[in-house]
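Re: the request from the purification team.
They wanted to know what the chain is likely to look like in 3D before they choose a buffer screen. I agreed to run a prediction and write the result into the notebook, where they can find it.
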Amino acid sequence: MKHMATRCAISGIGELKPTRRTDGVNTMDLLLKVSAEAAEDAGIEPGAIDGLLVGPQVGETPQHVPATVAEYFGMQPTMSNVVDLGGASGPGMIWRAAAAIEAGQCETVLCVLGNHRNPVAPRSPNRNPAREFDTPFGASGANTSYALLMQAHMAEYACTPEDYALIAAGARENAQLNPMAIFHGQPASVEEVLASPMVASPLHLFEIVMPVAGGEAVIVTTAKRAAKGPHRPIELWGAGEKLTHRAVSQAPSLISGPLKPSMARALSQAGLGVKQMDFLSLYDCYTIMVAATIEDAGLCAPGEFGAWLRDNGGMGPLARQPINTHGGQLGFGQPDLAGGMTHVVEAVRQLRGDAEGRQIDNCNTALITGNGATMSEAVALVLGASA
């Protein structure tokens, strides 16, 4: 079977336990800590890393981010860049790392995202479509924008609040299997999700991701190097990316997003169908995001995600196609842009076979999605366990 980048694989991962606040801790320290953990997990010395991909939001510097991070880490990479795709930044880093390796620019890439949760100065005003056409009418943040998407989806397909609440309840249920999750020990039933406060109709509090501090890191290297590491190499078999808009008022559709072509491309490159995926690691900032992704992936017809989830046996590791076994961001927490990378890290764990307490039987393929802005920036990956 021909895959996108069979000469590249994920060899190491790092993850910090989410916390609500990090007083006295800066972002750079979190990035360094989780990067060291990923390097150790890969069984390599930090000096072996010659590529660096970081996010745009590092509180200690407004510009020259890769250079600042590399200097702090004591690195001198031969390839570096900022990946600014919102919640899709994590998955977007993976295929860019593989592409850089394939191009011969480097051999081992550190992909790292994270944030701290301390007060920051307000940003300066700017002019863009969101400021001109969304904010004046009340769509000034993610909650209201995603509520608009959910309203449109409900109106088009007559989906019920209980359908969407299945996703939040499933995320909380999976979080009970992950001691690292912010909501570990705090399950929530469908009824409890619907009883939580209404934040932006029709979105309830438990349907909205909780911001936390934390960090995620992934090492991408050559398949030859990965084979020498302590873990089963995880290969990148396919990738797809699509950007359609920034402001929700400019979205070409309110009921389907750019993940649809992104997933189609990733699966096509992998030579596999979505129903052949053993694990679905789907970006879940809001319940509507998962609902739309399930439908856009072709797992069911538009408007039928609720019935599909019920027939799937839920979202846990025993489901027909498990979803977000680490709890997803709705159950694990969203460490800022690193939220998207939690889905990559969990997929690697499942494909390695070391997702203790929540391992999926015979897990060899995974579909990962990332989403930025308001269903605007999309990245999809297909990862596979090496033979």
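For the purification team: Confidence is low (pLDDT under 50) at residues 121-128.
Please add any questions underneath this entry.
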